[in-house]
Input
Amino acid sequence: MKRVEDLNENEFINSVVIPLLRIMGFNNVKPVPHHRPSEFGQDIRMFSKMDSFGRLIFHGAQVKVVKVHTDSKFVVGNAQQISAQLDLALNSKFIDEADNEEKKLIS
Output
């Protein structure tokens, strides 16, 4: 069995993050099948959980297994690029399959 520190991003998402979110009571927790621009800045598809008032709240997750830095010479782990991905995720809309309505993630 690999140590958490030795997992790549997909292994970490599938072995640690998704099971943890499911244990925490989130619904429809699934990884993004392919990392590309259409992932809208997320590594885990929109998932949801009821809040204390019975409202369905949608969430997304961006997962990094690299050290985050501010060195613009390196793209992987660059804080500015990560911030741009977060901005994209928070400003993108999606269709909720349950009611066929357009929704956004919480911010």
Summary: The chain has one domain: 4-97. DSSP finds two helices and four strands in the chain. The mean pLDDT is 86. Helices lie at 9-23, 79-91.
